[in-house]
Design a protein that fits this description.
Number of helices: 11
CATH class of the largest domain: Alpha Beta
Strand order of the largest sheet: 13-12-11-7-10-9-8-14
Number of domains: 2
Radius of gyration: 20 Å
Order of helices and strands: EHEHEHEHEHEHEHHEEEEEEHHHE
CATH architecture of the largest domain: 2-Layer Sandwich
Length: 348
């Protein structure tokens, strides 16, 4: 299938690399507002360049568009792409409020096209093992389910674009922009959240509207309790791995980026030996993207894109369809509502 990319920044180039690595994907075209930026992308990656969105979408050879614009600018190109009959893969967050996501979902349903979010941290062997352990009931009764993102972004990061650190276009700070991947993993593994109580602040950056530090206490629908900690103020020379912890009365597993720091169950299973041999964290592991957002590989994106292509061919929903990608945004917005109102409990 032929892919076109909407956006002209670092993430658009990242999408291009992931598409070029696919077996059933072909990088076809780019759209962006600035001719110079589009010319640079085409020179590096090949394909056609457009600065007119309607002309870009009118190309009959184009099958799928990926959206790599700022978070709060996903809705409009998604609506236009759906109207043009193109399948859509959109960067996280799908949009900055559940209401805006609902408009995207409805437009794609009406047009009969596929909508998928990008949660590349779902697509690696350790996550497969983690999800299987949950499905097999190896944790027993889930009791504590947590996510920790203690990353660092310097002031220059927020100063690099006028949209960064704004509610309108960034949708939030350390939670909506950085921690959303771990929040998605947490609810993908542990299930939906019943209610949240939260606190947030901007402690170490200037000139931004959003939080750089947040803490939320969760009550899950299955009865488990948990915590989310998200920050871009936690300096480290190597970067702290982002972690998801699940504990129950029969087992515990702590995932640090793409490897386990803890894998420990009361009842052994045949797969444990391979996991303990191949999927355990190295003692000197560095955090993936913890200090530098460009310091991640595109393998997760490639697998995410390949899942969408396969879903279209099979006539099914992709793993991170519109409703699935909406869940993390709904939880983050509930956290923001609680924090803005003195930590009151907010039900989802």
């Amino acid at each position: 299938m032929k892919f076109g990319i909407i956006g002209a920044g670092m993430i658009a180039n990242f999408h291009a690399k992931a598409i070029q690595a696919m077996e059933e994907g072909e990088l076809h075209s780019f759209y962006g507002r600035r001719q110079e930026a589009i010319d640079e992308l085409v020179a590096e990656n090949g394909g056609r360049g457009y600065t007119d969105l309607n002309e870009f979408l009118a190309d009959p050879e184009l099958d799928i568009v990926t959206i790599a614009t700022p978070s709060g600018a996903h809705l409009e190109p998604a609506l236009a792409a759906a109207k043009a009959g193109k399948h859509i893969i959109c960067e996280k967050p799908l949009e900055v409020t559940p209401e805006r996501i609902d408009l995207m979902i409805s437009a794609c349903e009406d047009a009969g096209v596929t909508l998928s979010g990008i949660f590349n941290r779902r697509f690696h062997p350790a996550m497969d093992a983690f999800k299987k352990a949950v499905g097999d009931g190896r944790f027993g009764t889930l009791t504590m389910c947590d996510a920790y993102v203690k990353w660092y972004r310097d002031q220059a990061y927020y100063d690099s674009g006028a949209w960064r650190g704004t509610w309108k276009l960034d949708g939030g700070g350390a939670l909506m922009n950085q921690s959303i991947h771990l929040i998605d993993q947490l609810i993908y593994l542990a299930g939906d959240v019943e209610s949240v109580s939260a606190s947030m602040a901007c402690l170490a950056h200037e000139g931004i509207e959003v939080e750089d530090t947040a803490v939320a206490i969760l009550e899950f629908k299955n009865g488990a309790r948990g915590v989310i900690q998200g920050s871009t103020t936690c300096w480290s020379s190597t970067g702290h791995p982002a972690e998801v912890h699940l504990c129950g009365d029969k087992g515990s597993a702590f995932l640090a980026d793409e490897k386990f720091r803890v894998w420990d169950f009361a009842e052994p299973a045949p797969e444990d030996a391979l996991i303990l041999e191949e999927l355990m964290q190295d003692s000197e592991a560095k955090g993936l993207g913890a200090n530098d957002p460009s310091a991640i590989n595109y393998t997760g994106h490639q697998l995410n894109f390949e899942d969408v292509v396969q879903a279209i061919q099979d006539g099914r929903q992709p793993s991170v369809g519109g409703q699935e990608a909406r869940r993390a945004v709904a939880l983050i917005c509930a956290i923001y509502e609680s924090a803005r109102n003195g930590g009151i409990k907010v039900s989802l």
